[in-house]
Amino acid sequence: MQIGILQTGESPDALRADMGDYPDFFESLLADKGLTFRRYAVLRNEMPQSVTECDGWLITGSRFGAYEDHAFIPPLEDFIRASYAAHVPMVGICFGHQIIAQAMGGKVEKYAGGWSVGPTEYDFDGEKITLNAWHQDQVVVKPEAAQVVASTGFCDNAALLYDNRMFTVQPHPEFPREFIEGLITHRGPGLVPAPILDAATQRLDATLDRAKMADRIADFFKTHQKRAA
């Protein structure tokens, strides 16, 4: 099963050479799951020709806001709606989670409650899963088509499921400890309040459930493929 990675952001210059870029993280997270990958630099306006060009789609995180004026956002929103209409499965992570919600009629905004950074526990329908967070923007109004499947006291719409066609998650299962530590060091100062960065640093050694979320994402794609067959 080929998954098209729609890249909407880049890892910081100071980290990319040693740790890789966003598509690298996803290919590593989903390695050995029976998936192959094709990359599209959507942030540079490289869009697929058709929603059926790959068997499924994954939208990465980004430093951009879904509500900002960038040339790639309107065509990406059109692509999201076309993928949903065509029943081609799609996964969105952080910005991907937000842009899918916005494209489907929800609302995304810079959250008045501030930032969520570092290891954070999410309630996935009763199962506690800890993943790294790095966001201030949130889906504050979910689309009518979406069902909430994970939340926290800070983030009501932390994961959404759209009629088994799209699965989106606010935190970053693809980010290992070292990358979040790098973001705290290189991107955080001046952007994220120091007390939040300090608290996140204290939690860096928390056990992350990245493998569990990798299984959920891979199972979502494969289950959809089996139904289509």
From TrEMBL:
GO terms for molecular function: hydrolase activity. CDD domains: GATase1_1. Its EC number is 3.4.-.-. Keywords: Glutamine amidotransferase, Hydrolase. PROSITE patterns: GATASE_TYPE_1. PANTHER family: GLUTAMINE AMIDOTRANSFERASE YLR126C-RELATED (PTHR42695). This is Type 1 glutamine amidotransferase.
